[in-house]
Amino acid sequence: MTVIKGAATELGTERIRKLLVQYSVPAIIAMTASSLYNMVDSIFIGLGVGPMAISGLALTFPLMNLAAAFGSLVGVGAATLISMRLGQKDYASAQYILGNVVVLNFIIGLGFGLVTLLFLDPILYFFGASEATIGYARDYMSIILMGNVVTHMYLGLNSVLRSAGHPRKSMYATINTVVINTILDPLFIYGFGWGIRGAAIATVLAQVISLVWQFRLLSDSSELLHFHRGIYRPRKRIVKEILAIGMSPFLMNVTACFIVILINKGLKEHGGDLMIGAYGIVNRLAFFFVMIVMGLNQGMQPIAGYNFGARQYDRLMHVLKLTVIGATCVTSLGFLLGELLPHWAVAVFTTDEELIRLAAEGMRIVFLCFPIIGFQMVTTNFFQSIGMAPKAIFLSLSRQLLFLLPGLLFLPDILAGMGYNGSWGVWCSMPLSDLLASLVAALMLLRELRRFRKRMQI
């Protein structure tokens, strides 16, 4: 127990740069592996099943976002709360949070999976499916939903491990999942001839194996946070706090679900089913860089949460500065790839020349404002990490609802009326919303930093 407490309390004493590297590198590796995990499915499905299968897979993105919304509602909220309680030396509360994470993930994961399975076909048609793509989307998503409770539990416990001072173990869990999935994908898709269903089975089975390992780690009584009797009864105050903090990423993922539906419908209307597949490829590539920034954010989260709880505002601002710099470097690399080598990037997923052309054109547009979205993501996560849920929620929603939604509703028709391809309006809405949302984030962050500086002077 002494070792674990030391791992937690070092967040308030060790050099910030060292801590950020120590916590971010495992998280970045884990998140990069997680993005590769998604890309592997797309690559094997695109090359082994066909271009329409990629469109079918892209139709599942809104439902995946919705599932992720409920997962982050518990996982992110609990991770932030655990970091803050450890900073306050309230170890008993941190233990009860662990128990409540298990119960909430089981209830929400099981409930979401059952309800969506009952209405899967109508949901997919609403998302933009056609007779050419519904079969692929149904085959993939039905398997994923059957294992939804496993996915929720796996992601939730990974967040707990990271916040409890075990970033490397959290990383290993993710890497194990990716490696197992990568091995099983070709075996199930090609060897057993299961097609897109094989990719889904590989995904769920890989998560099951990693979840068993997580349970083993958290069953060790020598750990500060571990499973034992008396921690699983839902506590109203803890549940309320978890859901309040997790509401920001929850709403962000719910709005992302709604936005992707609009993107799919707009692209289908102005470009057809293959255009949806092009977006699926671009989304996977953008996701790769976004996940690296999320890894940085995950490394920052326990450091920021602990030092905010300990009222060490100088350390809080230092970790924010370093994370913003790192995130900007990552997204700038994404910008260079999107503008200079888009054809090379999308050709990894398919050999279909028309799909490659459509995806490359879309990638150049979507990645146009990439250098600044790292800052916007870090700022949103910063407010979330220190428990300022309303600010984080507003920033999460500003890009999606205030800026991207109007663009998706009006730009395609405006450009179509001017004689251009309406699909360009869908693509252009994305970088435009990135620009405006980053400006709003900058204004809110500057205002909050002034308050921290005043507290440091008292």
UniProtKB/TrEMBL annotation:
Domain of life: Bacteria
GO CC terms in record: plasma membrane
Keyword Acetylation: no
CDD domains: MATE_MepA_like
Keyword annotations from UniProtKB, A to Z: Antibiotic resistance, Cell membrane, Membrane, Transmembrane, Transmembrane helix, Transport
Biological process annotations from GO: response to antibiotic
Membrane disposition: Multi-pass membrane protein
Pfam families (UniProt xref): MatE (PF01554)
Protein name: Multidrug export protein MepA
Source organism per UniProt: Alistipes communis
